[in-house]
Amino acid sequence: MTAVSPRTLRAAQWTAALTAAGYLLFSLWSGWADVWRAVTAVGPGGFAAALALSAVNYTLRFYRWDTYLRALGHALPRRDHAWVYLSGFAWTATPGKAGEMLRGVFLTRRGVPAELGVAAFVAERSADLLAVLLLAFPAAWLFPAYRPLLLALAAGLFLLVVAAHQSARLARLPGVAGLVGQRLAAAADALKVCYRLRSGWTGVFVGLIAWSAEGLALWVLLGQMGADVGVVRALFIYAVSMLAGAVSMLPGGVGGAEVAMVSLLMGEGLGHGDAAAVTILARLATLWFAVGLGVYALRRVS
């Protein structure tokens, strides 16, 4: 096992704690009475079902990540690798989830070059982005206000794929830029391996199932509360909210995702208190479940 410094572990815990404090303020703003009523309505069984669906998301995404690294020539023992992967979730509550790249530190100590870890991370993030975009795109007709967001993200993803095919030009840059360019070129070449037609679309398909599972978790919570929101619309609402959170670049998307979800749920006829309460429960079952697993995994890899 690779030792995790106390400073790294404390940083993860402080990141989670500070973001949780913001969540506490959000709960106070929405009203404790509404939150408690939602908790009572959902019950242990409903919340356990939501957690189980989130676990499906994490499991599928790990196997996709493991497939990427195996395609890049690094087959790590799955049990140890799973803990390394989950340790990245400790940093989910960072802007754009960029802190998850710190799992690359553990991968490097296991013989995986840094540029390959970065390439796998970018491949994972872009596959997830495309998957959530595909889930959310029909919502452009249901929620016109979010059309510019969806189109902008689609354009950004297209540019990323184009950039991945410019490795030769990056490697020819002169001087110090050339040294950096060579590392970027190596990462771009690795990214192309992950983007190959079969593995690339398989990654997106896995992402569709994984993020649909968390969307279903929202639908389960809504159903337990007696809200009349269909499963398809619940999936759309979850996907659009996650995209709004990603664009906000706030830690874990906290703030952007919640505001979008509350707004969209109110559009489905929920009162402000109920919409905010189910949003809090949904994020506890998805975002905060992941952070908790990540902090525990950090201890396991130490």
UniProtKB/TrEMBL annotation:
It is a multi-pass membrane protein. Its main location: membrane. The chain crosses the membrane at residues 12-32, 38-60, 118-142, 201-222, 234-255, 275-298. InterPro entries: L-PG_synthase/AglD (IPR022791). Keywords: Cell membrane, Membrane, Transmembrane, Transmembrane helix. The keyword Transmembrane applies. GO terms for cellular component: plasma membrane. It is found in: Cell membrane. The keyword Transmembrane applies. This is Uncharacterized membrane protein YbhN (UPF0104 family).
